[in-house]
Amino acid sequence: MDILEGIKTRHSTRKFKSNPVPKELIETVIDAGRRAPTGGNLQQIHFIVIMNQDILKNLVTIVQEEYGKMPVTEHMPAYMKNIIEMSAQGKFVFNYNAPVLVVVAHKPVLANNFADSAVAMENMMLACNALDLGSCWVNQIRHLQDNERLVNQLRELGLGADEKVYASLAVGYPDLPNGLNRRVLEIKGNPVTWID
Ligand SMILES: Cc1cc2nc3c(=O)[nH]c(=O)nc-3n(C[C@H](O)[C@H](O)[C@H](O)COP(=O)(O)O)c2cc1C
C-alpha cells in the first residue's frame, strides 16, 4: 500500500474477531513502531506486546474494576462518565476484545517521551492498515498510569521501574462486514495557515 493512501484510509477499528493474529504480522507492526523517529535518536521506547488472552482478560478486569470505583463528577466529559458507568456495570472492555495489545512505555524523565510514543503509535497504526489489521489507540492504560494495582500487574509483565505507560494499541482482525473501513473523510478541523 502506498504510504499516502495508507495515511488517508487509516481509521480506528472498535470491533475485532477473536482469531489470533500470526506473530510474524505483529512483529512487522512492532518493527514499524521501532523504526519511528525518537528525539535525539535515543530509541528508549519499550514495547510490551501482550498476546496472552488470560493476561489480556485480567487487564480488562483491572481497568473495569478501577474505573468502576471512580466517582462521576458534574464537570467530567460525557465519554468519561460513560466509561465509569459502563465499568460499574461490568460492561466496559477498553480494548474492544482485540487479541493483541501493544503497551508503549517510556522513561518519564525524558522531555520527548510523549512525542516519541505518539509517532511510534502512528507508525504501528499505519502498518496495521497496510497489513489489513484493525487497530485502535486505547488510552485507559495510560490514564490509569498511577493506579497501583494496574502498575503492579504491568511491572510483572516487564514494565521497568523507571518506565511509565504513554499509550497502548489494540490490534486484531476487524469484525466488520467488508473488512477495514477505509473511507476517505473530509478533514474539518486542524486548520492550516499558508504564508505564500
Ligand atoms: C491520543 C489518542 C487517544 C485515543 N484514545 C482512544 C480511546 O481511549 N478509545 C478509543 O476508542 N479511541 C481512542 N482514540 C482514537 C480516536 O478516537 C480516533 O482516532 C478519532 O476519533 C479519529 O477516528 P479514526 O481513527 O477512525 O480516523 C484515541 C486517539 C488518540 C490520538
Describe this structure in words.
This protein has one domain: NADH Oxidase, CATH 3.40.109.10. The chain has a 4-stranded antiparallel sheet. The protein has helices at 3-9, 23-34, 53-68, 78-88, 113-130, 140-143, 148-156; strands at residues 46-50, 100-106, 134-137, 164-172. 29% of the residues are buried. It has 196 residues and is an alpha+beta fold. Helix 1 (3-9) packs across helix 5 and helix 2 crosses helix 5 (113-130). The mean pLDDT is 96. Residues 11-12, 14, 136-140 line the site of flavin mononucleotide (FMN).
Hetero groups in this structure are:
flavin mononucleotide
Spatial strand arrangement across the major sheet: 1-2-4-3
Q: Under the CATH scheme, which architecture would be assigned? A: 3-Layer(aba) Sandwich
Order of helices and strands: HHEHHEHEHHE
Fraction in beta strands: 5-15%
Computed over alpha carbons, the radius of gyration is 17 Å
Mean pLDDT: 96
Structural class: alpha+beta
Tally of contiguous helical segments? 7
- Please tell me the total number of domains: 1
Topology, number of strands: 4
Main beta-sheet annotation: 4 strands, antiparallel
CATH C-level class: Alpha Beta
CATH homologous superfamily name? Answer: NADH Oxidase
Q: What form results from the Cα inertia axes?
A: globular
- The name of the CATH topology is NADH Oxidase
Helical fraction equals 25-40%
